Amino acid sequence: MPSMLDGLQLRALLPAGGLADEVHFYESIGSTNDRAKELAEAGAPEGTLVVADEQTAGRGRGGRTWFTPPGAGLAFSVVLRSQHHPSEMQSVWTALGALATREGLLELGAAAEIKWPNDVLVDGRKVAGVLAEAAWRDEALAYVVIGIGVNVHPGSVPGPKTLDYPAECVDTVVGRRVDRAELLAGILGALNRWHRSFRLGEILTAWEAALAFRGEEVHVEGEGRAWRGRLSGLGPRGELRLRLENGDSLLLQGAMHLRPVDSGPV
Length: 266
Ligand code: BTN
Hints:
There is one protein chain. The chain is α+β, with helices and mostly antiparallel strands. The chain contains six helices and twelve strands. The strands form two sheets. The protein has a seven-stranded mixed sheet with strand order 1-2-3-7-6-5-4, with helices on both faces. A five-stranded antiparallel sheet has the order 11-10-9-8-12. α3 crosses α5 (180-197). The protein is globular and about 55 Å long. The site of biotin (BTN) has 21 residues, from α2, β3, β6 and β7.
């Protein structure tokens, strides 16, 4: 299938002054996050965008791989050199990426929700994931790379053996073939708005309102432990708030893996 994504088309579609002032497009690359980090280390400005039609070493959270075969998905990374560096909420970058992806999908008519912290679901199936990586110098934020991968066409959905969570593609959930560049423009527009306004309180409120499985029983596993409880919302630093059976409230953060109890054991 020919790639419907190319650098020229992207430059024409993405507005100037947004988050794509410098576009690096690759037919095939290892990982757009790795490339964006290299560019950032070499001094690339805020708003540098790396997009690839195919990734051969796409990375997900927790060391997992992210599948990006040619012509089927959306894989991109944006460099931010933010004056904002909220050390009190380091997961804010993941939240911005997930909120923006959700909004880009909403524009297409897909009722997207965020599975804390970084997955974007439609009808309980994962269509996108966010991998945000920050680099610090002397306790100041040097740059952040926000990497986003979206399953757009059916060929982008990994086979069942490699899945860690049920997945679907955007075409299927919206019932038509979606233009990848259009979706990219929608997500970048939303990311730009969130990043420009950057109010932690608003980000937290929107993130919490968008949470999948809120009020439902979930399993959470991480750091060698497991919990079961009702997902009641977020803590002040973007932690996951669980209400345990004994009535206690627990705040969890870090490398946690969440799934609804309905889906069976973790
Ligand atoms: C996850 O679901 O665990 C996060 C997946 C993030 C994948 C994107 S694709 C673009 C960017 N480049 C990468 O190597 N990873 C992110």
